[in-house]
């Protein structure tokens, strides 16, 4: 058990009326002495000047919101507090934060709750504290309002984007080590030479030329046409006059969209006449980035539904129909009121994992309503569906419908033929047709555009239909299992520079082609080359694991580093403990099945491997290095 100095139960952060006090915060990015995962660790105490209610009273209120709270019994208010922070910390979004622990000290409890984003977890903690105090005072809290604030805080973090988070959660479930590279703005999956880095669904193995090519919609369209794939007739224009000329030539209805763009911004479909074209042209013009020239596509508008075909590693994996936002009349509510009511639905929580975004009211919506001789103040008859946009933009409130199992084989082959022309891990192909269960060869089928770095939430969590586990398809492109994402790691509680060099030499003797990274309190090495030592210890470890040539890592974690910074990585293939403290002994828990643990206490040595324990004493003048160097060979 970790020893800590006891403190008197005095107010630290508690207000005068509070019965609980929370203080002594510490955030760890990885495994630490209190929890084998990234965690927020803090102290919890009773103020003693005011008495809390019985635990059952808190359970009764909290359990109404989180029924799972009622399924357990609690030895103390601290245990209930920890469980509540863990449940609220999932943010009603299914965040993969399931671990917590409570350790008792004379005058307080030390609570550890699994954490992904420190600022969000701290805010969750303070909210739960306020909730406990409100229950004590028999007051209510603005729970929904607070939850929205917490969700938004997480959404603004580097982990909060729906694609990033779903990949992160899937990696966690598969045992693939993942972390954020702050200076680069990238996620890294895997260690050393096993790593893959990327942003959302774009990865370092993708060809940036191919990715850029997909943004040049005119060239891409010409390329697809060369391959014999169905693309709508049209042209690129730079002025409104040219746009009107092209539309007259190919005939209305037409679609209008900027050459450089994404997420359907500035896109208008089914433009019926010159007046509509002028408005659509202006919207496309506004969507063009300032540093880009004015280039707008005018093309024949094909009738049908909007579909996204998704390919991963050149293979078709999912299809989704995207319908524009709509409301259904009740005979007495205005369209504006129906939108507000629709936006209150739980499916439209507008969180990173909700199946639908809230319906956005803007000029494009009002113009489309005007074309239908409607406005936000119009009352529509009961049962009538009114579409609010021409474009099925999901970020503006559109509806996603899974269509994966309905796709005709010819359409799957078409998607894969397109994807295999690009060195991109993920490719989204937007098409328009009446139904995907009919072959594209039958006509009335057009490829609208292709997208590098496509979003995946529409497939993973559609508003209607079954989920397709796209994150697994993506990560399995790189790693068949979590083991495939890791390099061997040797962890020591203490090792000198000379012992570190001897260990490196021993490994290179067996594997001369390897690149070995090693760090202790006094030095950093890549093979025998000494590197700059950062005062932030875990930064040294990160830099080594970031090295795409690294075959093996050796790292020292003594008591001070372990207590103050925690351990950057999780999972050791071998742990070597030389007369360890109680805190350092916890390092032995961070091993895989089949890993080796070598412990020296005085002259006694214990070796644990695959459920077997071997004990013996060191011989006279026998160095400890001889023991663990021999054992290293068993894990390489």
Automatic annotation (TrEMBL):
Domain ATP-grasp: 221-479
Protein's UniProt keywords contain DNA repair: no
GO cellular component, one term: cytoplasm
Keywords: ATP-binding, Nucleotide-binding
One GO BP: SOS response
An example Gene Ontology molecular-function term: metal ion binding
Name recorded for this polypeptide: Cyanophycin synthetase
């Amino acid at each position: 058990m970790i020893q800590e100095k006891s403190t008197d139960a005095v107010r630290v952060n508690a207000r005068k009326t509070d019965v609980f006090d929370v203080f002594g915060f510490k955030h760890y990015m990885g495994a630490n002495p209190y929890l084998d995962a990234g965690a927020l660790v803090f102290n919890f105490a009773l103020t003693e000047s005011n008495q809390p209610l019985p635990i059952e009273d808190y359970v009764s209120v909290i359990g109404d919101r989180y029924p799972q709270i009622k399924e357990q019994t609690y030895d103390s208010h601290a245990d209930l507090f920890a469980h509540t922070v863990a449940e609220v910390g999932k943010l009603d979004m299914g965040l993969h934060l399931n671990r917590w622990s409570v350790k008792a000290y004379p005058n307080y409890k030390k609570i550890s709750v699994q954490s992904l984003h420190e600022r969000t977890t701290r805010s969750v903690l303070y909210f739960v504290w306020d909730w406990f105090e409100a229950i004590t005072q028999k007051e209510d809290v603005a729970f929904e309002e607070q939850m929205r604030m917490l969700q938004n805080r997480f959404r603004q973090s580097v982990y909060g984007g729906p694609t990033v988070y779903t990949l992160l959660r899937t990696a966690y479930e598969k045992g693939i080590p993942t972390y954020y590279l702050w200076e680069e703005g990238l996620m890294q999956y895997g260690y050393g030479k096993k790593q893959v880095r990327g942003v959302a669904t774009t990865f370092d193995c993708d060809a940036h030329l191919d990715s850029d090519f997909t943004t040049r919609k005119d060239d891409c369209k010409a390329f697809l046409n060369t391959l014999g794939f169905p693309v709508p007739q049209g042209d690129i224009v730079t002025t409104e006059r040219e746009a009107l000329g092209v539309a007259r030539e190919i005939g209305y209805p037409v679609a209008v969209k900027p050459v450089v763009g994404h997420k359907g911004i500035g896109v208008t479909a089914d433009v019926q006449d010159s007046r509509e074209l002028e408005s659509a042209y202006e919207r496309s013009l506004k969507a063009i980035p300032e540093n880009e020239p004015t280039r707008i596509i005018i093309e024949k508008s094909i009738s049908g539904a909007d579909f996204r075909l998704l390919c991963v590693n050149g293979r078709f994996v999912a299809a989704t129909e995207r319908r524009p936002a709509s409301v259904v009349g009740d005979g007495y509510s205005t369209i504006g009121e129906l939108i507000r009511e629709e936006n209150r639905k739980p499916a439209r929580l507008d969180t990173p994992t909700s199946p639908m975004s809230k319906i956005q009211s803007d000029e494009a919506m009002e113009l489309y309503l005007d074309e239908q001789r409607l406005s936000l103040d119009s009352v529509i008859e009961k049962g009538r569906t009114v579409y609010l946009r021409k474009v099925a933009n999901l970020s503006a409130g559109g509806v996603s419908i899974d269509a994966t199992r309905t796709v005709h084989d010819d359409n799957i082959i078409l998607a894969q033929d397109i994807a295999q022309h690009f060195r991109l891990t993920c490719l989204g192909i937007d098409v328009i047709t009446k139904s995907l269960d009919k072959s594209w060869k039958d006509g009335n089928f057009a490829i609208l555009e292709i997208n590098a770095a496509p979003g995946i939430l529409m497939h993973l969590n559609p508003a209607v239909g079954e989920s397709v586990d796209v994150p697994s398809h993506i990560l399995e492109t790189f790693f068949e299992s979590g083991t495939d994402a890791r390099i061997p790691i040797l962890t020591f509680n203490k090792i000198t520079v000379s012992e570190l060099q001897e260990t490196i030499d021993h490994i290179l003797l067996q594997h001369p082609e390897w690149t070995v990274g090693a760090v202790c309190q006094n030095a950093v090495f890549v093979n025998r080359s000494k590197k700059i030592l950062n005062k932030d210890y875990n930064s040294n470890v990160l830099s080594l694991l970031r090295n795409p040539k690294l075959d093996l890592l050796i790292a020292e974690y003594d008591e001070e580093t372990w207590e103050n910074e925690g351990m950057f990585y999780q999972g050791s293939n071998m742990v070597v403990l030389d007369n360890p403290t109680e805190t350092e002994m916890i390092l032995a828990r961070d091993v895989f099945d089949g890993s080796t643990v070598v412990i020296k206490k005085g002259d006694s040595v214990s070796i644990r491997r695959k459920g077997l324990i071997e004990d013996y004493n060191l011989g006279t003048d026998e160095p400890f290095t001889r023991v663990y160097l021999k054992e290293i060979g068993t894990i390489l």
